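Researcher: Please predict.
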Amino acid sequence: MRKYLLLLLTTLLLQPFYAADHPKREIRAVWIMTFYGEDWPKTTATNEISRKRQQQELCDKLDMLQAANFNTVFLQVRLRGDVIYPSAIEPMNKVFSGKYDVSPGYDPLAFAIEECHKRGLECHAWFVTYPLGQGKKTAVKKRPELCKLHEKEWYLDPGMPGTTDYLLSLVKEVVTNYDIDGIQFDYIRYPEKAETFPDKDTYARYGNSLGLAAWRRDNINRTVTRIYDWVKQAKPWVQVSSSPLGKYNRIPRVPNAGWTSYETVHQDPQLWLKQGKHDMIAPMMYYKYDNFYPFVDNWTENTNGRLFISGLGTYRMRTKDGDWSLYDIAEQMEYLRKSNANGVAFFRASQVFGDTKGLYKMLKSKYFKYPALLPPLTWLSKERPEAPLNVRVERAGKDLKISWRKPTDTTQPLTYTIYYSTNGTVNPNRAENILATGIRDTEVYLTVNSEKEQEYSFRVTASSRYHIESKPSREIYYYFSRYSK
């Protein structure tokens, strides 16, 4: 089956380009929430027809992301003590089939990963970490010693040594069985009203003379360290990240910051970055003005060379959640790019897919106008793959076919980036020259204006799973004519 890049080449390079506005490398992500089917799925799968409808729903959403040059999906795979894939540890949530612990007739996680990869999107498994929700879920029934009831909801107790083992078993299941690109932890913290969390017995048993707040942070640090170390031993290219609160601590510029990561819920993500136990941080920065800008600076100054992307609260554009304007989101994106952040993630995806207040149109036409490569994970690997071999361009009916061979010196999976120009030499350092990236095949078909005579130049690069890019292939020139020559 032909793989098409749905691009009309003759129209891509007609608008002015400003390098500062369009970075070559940037993470462009959405959180796709499966809890109650908020983002996906909207329908249940009870037979073959509804199953295909459910799958097509995701494909349509991913097509939208690809068309707007997104490159990353954070997919919620663990909800509240249940999951979206066949698991030997926890039951499948009912959101896909309509019945608890019943399969919809396919593996939603495997399907999502495959469909993301087809479109040049990375897929990261998003875990809700400690919350288990209401009702006695499997974890509460099978491992009651690990669980606490707080504010009418169940939680895994971070202070119990077995909690880390339990969470690690879930991570092992996903990393081992799926071609996932990353693991991301949400709610990897103590809950709201942490001061009343009922862990006095755990603290008395395991506190080791530490103060309560320090002991709680140490519990989470220990879990983060063990999971990170295991992932890097098993599949070192799989990124480990989390989405902590957007305000790390009460900084001098904003001493009355209110709810913070470090002081309020006992998570210390800046320590995880400093100790090299995270590859990326994606704080939930769902605030404005002085509750946003100073904390962006605080994150960018404390990344230890790892990746910082800001979670933007596009759900706040809804009338009931704040009625933010499109300008509020645009202003934050401008600041992030000037601050050398590594990208953005939007919560929730529904505001992107629904084009709330013109959000999708703005991203597609302005901020994500050109594709972007993912930032290199240089702390994990500096090995640079060789350039693709035997790049060829040929006519295939009314299309152009561009193909190449994988470098012969590597067996590792690679992705490819195609650069092009219609008005001279290809410059691989400019975002405007990126035709497509994240390609996993070694051939693509390009839609062109078959009624117009046009010259094209192409170069192709290979990237490792650590996003280390090769040198470009030699430049290939092709003159497309409506006439046979």
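Model: The mean pLDDT is 94.
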